[in-house]
Amino acid sequence: TTGPRIGLRFFGGWDFTEDDTFTRSPATAGYTKGVPMGGDLRPREGDAAPSFLIAALRDPIGANLDRVQIIKGWMDAEGALHETVYDVAWSGDRTLDANGKLPEVGNTVDLETASWKNSIGSSELLTAWTDPDFDPGERAFYYVRVLEIPTPRWVVYDKLRFGIELPPEAVLVHQERAYSSPI
What we know:
There is one protein chain. The longest helix has 9 residues, at 154-162. The protein is elongated. The chain has helices at residues 26-33, 154-162; strands at residues 7-13, 34-36, 51-57, 65-75, 81-90, 124-130, 140-148, 151-152, 173-174, 177-179. β4 and β5 (81-90) form a beta hairpin. It is mainly beta. The mean pLDDT is 95. The protein is built from two helices and ten strands, in the order βαβββββββαββ. It starts with 6 loop residues before the first strand and ends with a strand. A four-stranded antiparallel beta sheet has the order 2-1-3-6, with helices on one face. It has a four-stranded antiparallel beta sheet with strand order 5-4-7-10, with no helix packed on it. Strands 8-9 form a two-stranded antiparallel sheet.
């Protein structure tokens, strides 16, 4: 993670479905039907796309979660490298736009008090996702990125504590993250 203790479980397989998310123990389905993050998913006959089970839990003393993304990387037949980011789970009632982009979660940061409110986001996000662009002729890797809602950066705490002025170009708000190992 970039700081907070976000809990993250990530499994890859060929048979994960939404039914696997209706449990308090996604790891049971994860280990039974697939491989954990850091593992190699064995090839399968046919054109079936791999599926993934992702469970993210916020840091108990941290910010709520904004979204879960899967980053897919692959090399095409000509040897060119590619990468695509998929938003696969998110908080609130947001929907993907026509370009497949998710609107921002919002921002509750109070720069005067170096604080934020957990009135947006979710405490946990759990989903099953199947690669919609899978090509069995290409080798690919997948990893997960989890983003928290916006929170103040450390410079805002320093400004408050030490009464200093910050340069206008200082970045005051950010979104902490957690990353999985690839499959």
